[in-house]
C-alpha cells in the first residue's frame, strides 16, 4: 500500500547539493506500521531508554565507524577504525546508520539527520571509488569487510578459499544493506535508496556465474538477512531480478525441513538462522510463496514455544540446544544473546502484518519488556550481549567506543524503535498492541489518540481521542496473561459488553469523536513458567513481567567490558549451582500463590515459600536488576524430591570414591607436574582452563602422549574426560604404544555443556606383561583432538 505524506513546511538542504522536502510519511515496506514520526513516546521507561540511548549514540565517532569503508575503497581514512572485533570490521557502521535514521524519524533530532547525511556522503564516495577502481568485481560495492579486493575478486570466479577462511563476510555486508534501506525507509533519503539498489545489483552480479550448488555452499556460512534485503528491493522496485536474488540467497538446509514442519535446529548457531527466516517470511509476503510462508511461521512457533526462555530470549553458547542439553541454560553463563531477540521481534512484526493474531503481540510484549529493555544499563546506557539464566550469575555491559560486538550494533537500534509496534493498522482498522504511554497521529483518519498509562505498575491504560472525528474499528489486545472474563473496557465511563478471550483482539466499531475516552482494565496475576525440558526450574511472572531477585555483587569481573575480543563474557566466578536457593513446596504449582506484594513497591514480592540456601531479597521486575548477580530460574522441589536431591549428591561423592579405588594411574592434563611425572611428549599441542579444570589438545600434525603405569594388570580401560559442547567436530586417534586403540569423532558425542567421562576398553593383548604403556592422542588430517581434561587407567568393573 502506498501512503502519501502531507508535506511539512520545512525545506532541508542535503549534503549532496540538492534540496528535498521532509515529508511526514513515504512509501513504506511495512504497510501496517505507522511512520515513527507519527507515534510519539510520552514520559515513561521506554522514552527514558530511548533518550538515554540517543545520548550514547552521540558518543561514537562517525569517522572511526567509516574508516573500514574508506580503507577498502582505497581512500585514506580520516581517523583510525575501532579495534574491537577485528575481522568484522565495518559491521557496526551499518547498524549505526539504521539507528541514526530511526531516531531522527522518531524525534526530529537534527544532529542525527546531519550525521546520517554525512555517512551517506562518505559511503557514496566509497561506492563510486569501488566502482571505478574495481570494475571487474566492485561496481556498486559499499562494504568495509577486511581485504575486500582479494576476497571478492576470487569469490566471483568461484574460488571460495578466502571466503571460507574469513569471518562471515555477507553477515557483515548485510548490516550496511540494512542501514542504507533504513535511511530511506525511516528518513526518506532517496540517495540512500539509490545506493541500496546499486549495492543489491552488486550482490547479483557477484554471484550470477555461481551454480545452485555453489550458492548453497556459500550460504553454509552465516550471512545475516541477505534474503530479506532482496525481498525489500523487490517490493521497492517491482523488478523480478531482486525476488529471484532473494530466493537464490535462501538457505535450503533449513528452508526445506522447516517448511515441512521438521525442526532440525539442534546445535545450530541460533542467530545465523533467525535472519534467514525473517527473509523467508518477507519473500512469502511479497510473493505469496507458500513454502517460504510455512517455513517462517513454523520456525517462529517452534522457537517461541519450545526453545525460548521466560524473558523471550533463546540459545545458549549462541546455539540452539537439543532437549537433552537444555540443562545448559542453568549450567552455562553465556545465555541468550540480545541479537536473537532483536531478530525474533522483526520476524514477529512480519508475521503479524500478514496475520494479525494476538499471540504475536503477546510474545512481542514479553520480549520487549523482559529482554530488550533489560539489556540497557539505566545509567550509562551500555548494551548487553549474553543474559545468563544460570542462578546467581550476572551480565556484562559495553562502553561507547570500546566494545563493538554484534549486540552493540543491534542494541543501537533496539531502543530507537520502541514506538514501532504500539499501534498498527490493517486498512482502516486500528490495532492497539502494546500498553505504552504514547500519542498516535493517524493522518489518514485525521485523528490523534493519546494513550496514558503507568503500565505495568498499574493494571490498566486509557486511550483518548484528542483531535478529529472518524469511524473505524478499534482492535484492543486481550492479553494472554489475563484470565478469561477479567478484562474490562469502558467508553466514556460506560462499560461495554466485551466479546473476546485471552490472547485475542476485542473489536470496537464506532464513530469516534474528539474527547472519547477508552478505559481498559488489565488485571495482572502471579504465575510461573518452567524451563524448557528442565521442568524442576521455574520462573515467576506478574502479568507479562518476569520477576527476578538480586543475589549479591561479589566478583562482578569485567562488569563494564574493555575492548578485548571476548570482553562480552561474564567471566567472574561461577557460584556453585548446588548452593543456589531451592524452593520447597508440597505442590510446586502453589508457589506463585505464596508470593506476597510488598507495600508501596509496585511489582515487588516477598517469597513466602520454604527456601534452602536462602537469599535476603524480594522479587522485582527483571528489567530493573543491574550491576548485580541475580536469580531468574529457581530450582523447585517437594520435600521428598529435596531428600532425593541431597541423597544424589551423596551418591555422586560415593561414586567418586569408588572410581578412585578402581584407578591404577591418573594424569591431570595441562598441569605441569602431573604431565612431567608421566613423561609427556608433544608437538603442536596447547593447554587451557575451563570451569577451573585444565585441559590439553593437539592440532594439525601434532600429538601429545603420556607414559602410564599398569602394574602388569590386564582387564583395564582408558577413561577420558571431555567437555560435551565443542566448537566444531573433532576427529582423532588414540594409540597404545603406537597401536591404534580407537578413532574418535566428536560429531557422535552429546553436545551438552557438561563434563563427560567416556571409557575405551583396552584389549589384553596391548597390556600383557607390561609395567607401563604410552597413551597417545593424534588428530586426523585437517582436524584436532578434543580438549582432554584427564586420563585414568581403570580396572574394568
UniProtKB/TrEMBL annotation:
GO terms for molecular function: hydrolase activity. Residues 430-524 form the Non-reducing end beta-L-arabinofuranosidase-like GH127 middle domain. The lineage of its organism: Bacteria, Pseudomonadati, Bacteroidota, Flavobacteriia, Flavobacteriales. Residues 658-794 form the Glycoside hydrolase GH146 substrate-binding domain. Coiled coil: none annotated. Residues 38-419 form the Non-reducing end beta-L-arabinofuranosidase-like GH127 catalytic domain. Keywords: Hydrolase. It comes from the Bacteria. Residues 672-692 are annotated as: Disordered. Signal peptide: none annotated. It comes from Zunongwangia profunda (strain DSM 18752 / CCTCC AB 206139 / SM-A87) (Wangia profunda). Residues 552-634 form the DUF4986 domain. Residues 675-692 have a biased composition (Basic and acidic residues). This is Glycosyl hydrolase. The keyword Hydrolase applies. Pfam families: Beta-AFase-like_GH127_cat, DUF4986, DUF6805, Glyco_hydro127M. GO terms for biological process: carbohydrate metabolic process.
